[in-house]
Amino acid sequence: MDEIKNCEEQERIRSSTAMPLFRKVAILGTGLIGGSFGLALRRAGFGGAIVGWDRSEILDRAEARGAIDSGCTGLEAAVKEADLVLLSAPVGMIIELSTQLPSRVSPGALVTDTGSTKQEICRMGFRAFAGKAALFLGGHPMAGKAPSGIEQADEKLFAGTVFVLVGESEAARSDARAQKYVELLRSLGAEPVWMDAETHDWAVAMVSHLPQLV
Questions:
Q1: Do 28 and 88 contact (CB within 8 A), yes or no?
Q2: What is the mean pLDDT of residues 34-48?
Q3: FRET partner for 165 with CA separation of 20 to 30 A, picked from 84, 185, 188, 210?
Q4: What is the pLDDT of residue 51?
Q5: How far apart, in Å, are the Cα atoms of 150 and each of 27, 38, 176?
Q6: For 104-120, what is each residue's pLDDT tens digit?
């Protein structure tokens, strides 16, 4: 049985390398989730550039682990020519970044996040990118660990997990960039699930936030 699973996994990875994926990924926040995303990309055979944005000491550790190819402490340099920008920072910083990025990212870019709450992030993100050529999607991988930081990053963190996506409209969900991201997530072993922000926040509050509070 394990042999069959291993064969299926290898076939998935081989198929992912043949896909027309993104050329440059900018990961803004290279801790547990951002670092794991970079490692998972490489494991899936992603051949493009992976650039990180964070504090210099964290970027050094992320690069040493192989989660990124290079790091930038300047936001504009990090997202330059990136066609996928992943905001993987605390929720408050994600909201702040989403308002700064529309004038900095490439017109054809997809900007998304990994925040654990979606209503406020999506409200601000959709508003900031309204009328812009770049596309904003909300996102939240239902994965993680109790210890945080780049040292805990895991290339298999997203394998077998649900990855929630939130689009502003049906047109956003059908956008070629959104569909390409869906395929990318599947190549990492995750299962993308479209959901509205309100339903996501209610569900996560019931199964995660409330039990943690208790």
A1: yes
A2: 97
A3: 210
A4: 98
A5: 13, 11, 31
A6: 999 999 999 999 999 99
pTM exceeding the 0.85 threshold for the entire prediction: yes
Long-range contacts of 128-134 (CB under 8 A, 24+ apart): 128/98, 128/99, 128/101, 128/102, 129/98, 129/102, 132/102, 132/107, 133/107, 133/108, 134/101, 134/102, 134/105, 134/106, 134/107, 134/108, 134/109, 134/110
The DSSP symbol for 69 reads: S
Spell out where 36-143 has E strands. Answer: 49-53, 70-72, 84-87, 110-113, 135-141
Mean pLDDT in residue range 190-211: 81
Q: What is the DSSP secondary-structure string of 11-54?
A: HHHHHHHHS---SEEEEE--SHHHHHHHHHHHHTT--SEEEEES
